[in-house]
Structures are given as structure tokens and as C-alpha cells.
Hints:
35% of the residues lie in helices and 14% in strands. By secondary structure, it is α/β, with parallel strands linked by helices. A four-stranded parallel beta sheet has the order 1-6-5-2. A two-stranded antiparallel sheet has the order 3-4. Residues 23, 25-26, 29, 39-40, 42-43 line the site of one zinc ion (ZN).
Amino acid sequence: MLLARQFNRLYDATLALLYPQACAACDAGHVERRADAPACAACWQATRIFTGAETCCWKCSALALGEVTAEQRADVRCRRCEASAFTAARAVGMYEGALRAAILTLKREPYIGTRLAQLLCAAQRRPPLDVATLIAPVPLHPERERERGFNQATLLARALAQQTRLPLDERSLARITHTMQHRAGMDARARHETVEAAFEVTRPRLIAGERVLLIDDVFTTGATVAACAHALKEAGATDVFVLTVARA
Length: 248
Ligand SMILES: [Zn+2]
Ligand SMILES: [Zn+2]
């Protein structure tokens, strides 16, 4: 163990000397430790990471104004997410700095740094996500996955499953229609309609009774995860929680 750590440190130092990897979030910094990839320590420092003590909608995590006590936190609601089928959605932090860089890099390179994996794990260990029994990634359409070579949500889900030891189901939730790219000017309602019928559960017996933790890279309007949650609930899931790297 100690030897491995020493080796890692030596490896990091050598790597930094030979191939200084530029920070993907700023122009100035370099990635000092492999675990921090793809951002530098300063960018990680500057990124807002949620602690669970924020004042936000308990269900969808939309930031709210003002401060509430820990007991009141479960009663805060934005009301815009009322119709969404998921129980609660959480994110590691804001879509900025190191997290934004990690999400954009993950669309090109199938690699997740240890720091991000550990942050996902910490978010899962906090209530209400801590009762999840099964991890499932938001699926890409097979055509899209072939083009890219991988599904970034699946990579995140695998990294989280490895950290938490929760079982992972990569196949039961499937995307059945190739949703069109969201056009500029499309409102939330239109987005919901585009993705509403896009998902189905192919093996409901593996989902029934589970408290599913749905994984995606970024939570924007919540339309995609709400559509997935709807399909999972139809298949008998007790709860559907959502965990994303960032919240836009
Ligand atoms: Zn940086
Ligand atoms: Zn909400």
C-alpha cells in the first residue's frame, strides 16, 4: 500500500516533468496530480462543490434564496419540478471550473479522475441518495454511442459503482428514439415532449422494487432524467434518485 502510494507520487512527479498536462479549465495551470485530471488544483479550489447544506429545492436541487435550518431543508420546494417522476436529484457541484472541464473532457476521452469519482461517492453517501440500491446510467441512443465509442454516463456510473460497491445495471434502461438536438428557443415544455417517450425498461423484473440511482453528466432542465425516471417507475422502481456531476 505504502509502496503503491510512493510509486504513485513518483509517477505523478515524473509525468508532470515529462508531459505537463495543461489544465482543461484555465489557460495557466497544469494538472499536478493524476487524481485531479483534467483540472489544476486552483481550478478545483474555485469550483463550487455542494456540501448538502445549501438552501435549494429538496427535490430537484434548484438553488433558492435565503437560509433555512437543517430541519426546514426537506420542506424547500421550487414547485417547477412537481410533475417530475424522480424522488430527488443531486449534483456534485455547479457547472463551472473543474466540473465543467471534467464533463467536456469526458465527451472526448473515456477517463474519470479519482477526485471526481470520490466526489460522486460522497454525494451518494448523503441523504436522500444513501438509500439507493441500484445504479443505472442515462442511456445514449445506440447510434450515438457507436459514433462516440462510449457513453459518458455509463463511465460515471461504473466509477461510482466501483467506489460505493452498489450493483450496476447498464442495460435495463434503454433509449428507443433518437431525440433531436434541442433547438435554441425550445422551452421546458417542448423539451419535455421531445424526450418523454424516448426511454423504456427492457427488463422490468430487474428494476421492480429497486431504489434506482440514475447517473448523468449534467442536470440542465431535468427533462431527460425525468423521462428516464418515468420509465423506471412504470417498471416498478420504488424510487428514482438522480446524481449528476454538475447542475447548470
Ligand atoms: Zn486550472
Ligand atoms: Zn425543484
